[in-house]
Amino acid sequence: MIVGEQKPLKEIMDLLGDAQKVLVAGCGTCVTVCFAGGEKEVGILASALRMMSKMEGHPMEVDEVTVQRQCEWEYIDPLVDRLGDYDMVLSLACGIGVQAMNERFPKMVTLPGLNTTFLGLPEEQGVWEERCQACGDCILGVTAGICPIARCSKQLLNGPCGGSQNGVCEVDPDVPCAWQLIWERAVALGRIDQLLEIQAPKDWSKSRDGGPRKIVREDLRLEKAE
Amino acid sequence: MAKAHKVVEERTNGYKSGSNLERVLRAGHFAVTGELGPPQGADPEEIRRKAGLLRGVVDAVNITDNQTAIVRMSSIASGVLAIGAGLEPVVQMTCRDRNRLAIQSDLLGAYALGMRNLLCLTGDHNIFGNHPTAKNVHDLDSVQLIRMVKDMRDESHFQCGDEIEGVVPSFFIGAASNPFGDPFEFRPYRLAKKVAAGVDFIQTQLIYDIPRFRDFMKQVVDMGLHEKVYILAGVGPLKSSGMARYMRDKVPGMIVRDEYVDRMAAALKDIPKEEKAQRQEALRSTGIQICIEQIQELREIEGLAGVHIMAIEWEEAVQPIVEGAGLLPRPAVADEASKGEGVG
Fold first, then answer.
1. What are A141-160's pLDDT values in tens digits?
2. What is the value of pTM for the model shown?
3. In this structure, are residues B305 and B232 in contact, taking their beta carbons and an 8 Å threshold?
4. Angle formed at CA B45 by CA B40 and CA B46, multiple of 5 degrees
5. Does A154 contact B96 at a Cβ distance shorter than 8 Å?
6. ipTM
7. What is the pLDDT of residues B145-160, one digit of tens each?
8. Residue in A137, A152, A153, A165 to test binding to B, most B beta-carbons within 10 Å
9. CB contact under 8 A, A163 and B100
10. How many angstroms separate the CA of residue A184 from the nearest CA in chain B?
11. Which CATH class name applies to B2-238+303-338?
């Protein structure tokens, strides 16, 4: 899932500036599951904004809404009738949702209330960790199912650097060394041979370095290309 | 491609690069390399001063590339200054700061400016340096970098496959190996990958655990790697017991046996705190003495071709270490055919 984290209240207040009427818009998918931008967090943040703006002497009128998925037109289109009432929208969706709102409602300023942090999973209740960088050319088949692009601090493809010790990365003792994990799993699976092959330089053009990526599936399109 | 390869062979008279380091190793001498850290400023005299301390003492000197991710004078520019001061550089190149385009163009320039040895490194993570918020590159890793430099030299093509026009950069290719990092069992395999990628020489991480290094070298010898690559053992003089303790406890990927910490501490025994000069001298001579003994011990290990002495910001220590280890004078390996090329 996409994991996000709410921006500090002060930063959000600065972004909103002197707006008087604000709609806080949550999203019912990934950011709800990671407790950052769902209906509950929308309610808490809206209250905080009301209190803080009042304390600062320019009370803000803050309304709340949460849609099922802010990244799909069909879920955000119904908001069109409500938006006329507001100076600004504060979206608690990921960066995709914020951009979808700006794209669909070009006259309305939609601001980000979250930092979209990574693609990951909850390791345990309250702890999320990155697992994928959406590099566009998955190599999990040759790295014992553990991704060094997302999990090695130097994105190494041919084994650990010299800074791996006692299972942790040199960058942070709380970060497991991806190559330690890869090695141990490959040993357990009896598949170390694939780690001994030299991995060629990665084709980063399939990642973001090739510019924004796009997938077109003609078999799914309603209006077929000529 | 074959034609270009032949040109390279002729130009270097059978050597891969014709560097002094390559000639010393090929001739079977126990090689000695040193290390020179460029300044955090633009003063060429800094390089010349340090080069003066190492000239005639080592066969070649590593010039670090923004070591520990702290901005310093470029390793290639510093290398030009070192050559001017009569010292052969080993240019260090990390994957942290440059993508494959920048690395290759810098290598063309480095070769044109007379560099002949290159050390291919992953690079210390930028979080440790003075620009922790920088975007790191890691377009390639060190194994891929080795292969790229080898292909430039032996196949006359760039990483993309395009042919190199005219002069081909022909480096003596080095890399690092850390026998003390984890997973320990993977370390010899990682070295094997570097060998398969085309590395010519290896300099190891600082060794303060000779028994473990011996285990590592045994695996290396069993795998036959020592016959395919020159391995230089990394050593460095300790400055104090505090430094030894810091490296033991705080530096990732390092192992320091307690005996070294204890010996440095014992050096100050019976010398009163007020006797600053005497204490300093005791530490200095003990650090150098330990390093000399380490070199003598390491020379007994099968498969080693030399030592790499890292005495960053203590270049003065290198001469007494090399002399004490019985490795002076450094050999001059004559090579009639490559005379007059300004190499070495």
1. 999 999 999 999 999 999 99
2. 0.93
3. yes
4. 40
5. yes
6. 0.91
7. 999 999 999 999 999 9
8. A165
9. no
10. 8
11. alpha beta
